[in-house]
Amino acid sequence: MAKPLVYDAVLRVRLTKEQFDFIKSYAEQHNTDMSQIVRDFIEKLDKKEKREQSKRKGS
Length: 59
Prior knowledge:
Layout: H1 17-29, H2 34-58
């Protein structure tokens, strides 16, 4: 069985009511929590940045 992830940092974010309502609704519709949506987005940003860095090095 996979080792569970251990989170050792907390991020507090200020959102508009509309942003909060959207992410809450999105999380419910996708059967996940709001924190996981943020973590997934950060992972996408990280992968995108690494791809762009790789392209710059290859140019």
